[in-house]
Amino acid sequence: MRARFVLPALGAVAALLLTGCVDNSTPAPETNGAATSVTADDAAVALLPADVAASGELSIGTDAAYPPNEYKDSAGAPIGWGIDLATAIAGKLGLDPDFQISKFDNIIPSIVGEKINIGESSFTVNPARMEQVDFVNYYEAGIQWASATGTDVDPDNACGLRVAVQATTVQDTDEIPAKSDACVAAGLEPIEKLQFDTQDLATNAVVLGQADALSADSPVTLYAISQNDGELQAAGDTFDVTPYGIAVAKGNGMAEAIQAALQSLVDDGTYEEILDEWGVADGGISTITINELAAG
């Protein structure tokens, strides 16, 4: 996601993201005061599955390669507003957060396989993912394209262009294939989708001229633009606003516990404070729901 945007830990991330493995030596996250100063909410704690409550920890899967939502600092510790929010959720549940860094498309299988408790990695809530896990909605984000500064790229007229995306995101699985199919149906050249394991590499492809544009979630794209010293620009407006959700296993009560913890954070102002700290308050919501597909 940037020229200077290649994170120092990127090589390490690539090494550990094989076959669904997690990095159990992840340093403690660097969180702001709002995330670490919360007190347990008894009503939320009471909803926890007994085994999770007894463990004293909330194991959290995250990709940590999607600034400013989830990424790594120079020491390899997870940071970002999503990390802060997950830390605060753990606090509301009276648990210690245990972040486990994994390849994005291995997080949901790890939840289903009971290797981790939740996934906090900017998951867009959609029916395909809901077949495997439940989602506790916590934010609303749209899709935003970016291109090299000075270029003229229109997301609604991108036939024949090279568009960089992170693998297994909605942009990869839904948006770009649908746009490309529409191009072909109109007798035009398809979009060449360039798929990358991390958003960092997708953004760098645009900066280096290997791609004409990138497509990512709005807070991620806008952060990438701000970090690239004028090399990137927004291409078109934000569109297709949809919810982000915390991924949890189906039927074990975890969804209700996370929902209660998040609603408590909203009600006491901690949620808004975290979003304000990272400059992403525009996507904040006031009511926490479960498996809500439409942005409200």
UniProtKB/TrEMBL annotation:
CDD domains: PBP2_MidA_like. PANTHER family: ARGININE-BINDING EXTRACELLULAR PROTEIN ARTP, MEMBRANE-BOUND LYTIC MUREIN TRANSGLYCOSYLASE F. SMART domains: PBPb. Residues 1-24 form the signal peptide. It comes from the Bacteria. Keywords: Signal. The keyword Transmembrane helix does not apply. The lineage of its organism: Bacteria, Bacillati, Actinomycetota, Actinomycetes, Micrococcales. InterPro entries: Solute-binding_3/MltF_N. This is ABC transporter substrate-binding protein.
